[in-house]
Please model this.
Amino acid sequence: MSQDDLTCEEVLEQLFAYLDEELDDDRLAAIDRHLERCRDCFTRAEFEKRLRARVQQTGTAPAPDRLRQRLKKVLDRY
Model:
């Protein structure tokens, strides 16, 4: 394993930052290379991407008025 290679544990620890593109270019590229070789990590990354897309699609409906009122009360206390 070269110095540039990441373990599955390292990739999974940084997966959300990777998906959010919050890592530097070198780290993003290293994870990309790992995902090209490792089917398990690739599968996990694809699952997380699809889950995020699904949640984003469902999150477009406006909240009911009752929920908005409850949230406003909570936020007003702080």
Residues 15 and 25 are 14 Å apart (CA to CA). Residues 8-77 form a domain with the Arc Repressor Mutant, subunit A fold (CATH 1.10.10).
